[in-house]
């Protein structure tokens, strides 16, 4: 018995030591491969949040290696563990819209008129995120804007590839628009909203519904640091912020490939720009072009890149990057011109900053009214940290107040 206990203790000690070494190695890797610019407000908090994410990923990898669960599954589980309980100001209910899970937040206070409606699509790179991870954000929007908010639990990659997430968001939105009277929502005041990958989905849904005459017209779209294209991962913001948490340049391309194909086998080609033929790049250069970005956003070490061609074999695996329902920045002008009033939030220290800036220009060039709010000290994912107690950021609340 004593021998067995000794062996068990030694095994656990060895496992713990290996785990600690792995975590230390991951944190060291994080410090050597990431950069927090001096312009970020409260950089120590951002570093702590990033280290927590790194440690979660390391534990997930260990559990995957010993056959307990997948790394992705573990990270999703940890992200969705926080529960907020009842809300004294909101009725909260889980439902299904066209086989898509949704959570509805309705203000309890009586209203003299029909309320605004908000369809919300969470971020997380199409791989992570859920109704639970954005619970606090949706509650805040519902309370502060006195709106009925519908948070959509769309299917995630890599299990469900494109266009699964887009189809779920579109179907849920169509269902809501067809049943607004049941929720006391004004048909003239329905908005689609999303952050990061959710911003991509909101833009795609808004474009799809723009020409529909059988449904109420959307009042607005709210795009919070959206990812809107996959043709060029070397725009100024991708170069300047490639190692800034919480979204590295490489991870942005990785998530897009996970959503598209369920794998990232062509990651290097996508990062260097050899995944799209030159003739197609030139076709879309009027929209995806560093020259369309204001000069003040290029002063932080941007270097123009030479256009690279690609092989037919590579393009075959990623050619759907040219579909607007995946990359809304590539939609034709006739679609853009029909879009509703738009709110776009960008962050200076975010690889996706220029996607937002390019879309802002496209909308304005086509006569769409745009409200743009730029967080000069912000980073990708900051809005979701508006209520993290001692890990909250003042600019997160400032950005969220502007969204409301």
From TrEMBL:
Superkingdom field: Eukaryota
Pfam families: Abhydrolase_3
Hydrolase recorded as keyword: yes
Limits of the Alpha/beta hydrolase fold-3 domain: 118-264, 319-383
Keywords tagged on the record: Hydrolase
GO cellular component assignments: membrane
Residues annotated as the enzyme's active site: 196, 350, 380
Keyword Hydrolase: yes
Family of this protein: Belongs to the 'GDXG' lipolytic enzyme family.
Stated name of the protein: ADCL4 protein
Species annotation: Vidua chalybeata (Village indigobird)
Gene designation: Aadacl4_0
